[in-house]
Amino acid sequence: MARQPAQYLPKPPDMFDRDWEWSELTAFATGEGVGPRLGVVSGRRRQGKSFLLQALAEATGGFYFAAAEASEAESLHMLGEAIADYTGTAAPHRPARWDEALELVIGLAAERPVTIVIDEFPYLVRSSPVLPSQLQETIGMGRGRYLERHPPARWLRVDLLRVMARL
């Protein structure tokens, strides 16, 4: 049985079936709660995870970034461009390190809760093995640092494994 989202988000008309998946994702993205939440969406390739998460980001007014196989510098550049596109900033941000980039991403939730999707996260980790630790540090797990500055964000990270889990 699917959980009920805190806010009803209609399933996009071009999404066939996927009622359970859409219900679970929208419940995660719109659920009440204090602090950031990190979700991991994983599964076999070519099963529609990216399509679902792009639709979720669009439905919630969230941020979606699709990583590519690239160097750390190239990935940081692409993320800075994606943030500029999302915020409507004329000049893209140029983070030099992942801690700077993640602070920019978390800053997107400065005014309201934001769904943040980082698709193909393993591509980023391949060129930056410390990224998972930096992500944990940025959202301030266990220290409340994030809560002092921002409303709740819903982070969704996409991995190519076999399970869907909430952390």
Summarize the structure in words.
This protein is an alpha/beta fold. The chain has one domain: 3-Layer(aba) Sandwich (Rossmann fold), CATH 3.40.50. 43% of the residues lie in helices and 15% in strands. A 5-stranded mixed sheet has the order 2-3-4-1-5. The two termini are 20 Å apart.
The domain tally reads: 1
Proportion of helical residues: 40-55%
Query: Strand share of the residues?
Result: 5-15%
Identify the CATH architecture: 3-Layer(aba) Sandwich
Largest sheet: 5 strands, mixed
What is the number of E strands? 5
User: What's the level 1 CATH class?
Assistant: Alpha Beta
What is the string of SSEs from the N terminus onward? HEHEHHEHHHEE
Structural class by helix and strand composition: alpha/beta
Name a few traits of the molecule:
43% helix, five-stranded mixed β-sheet, Rossmann fold, 5 strands, alpha/beta, 167 residues, 7 helices, globular
In summary, what is this structure?
By secondary structure, the chain is α/β, with parallel strands linked by helices.
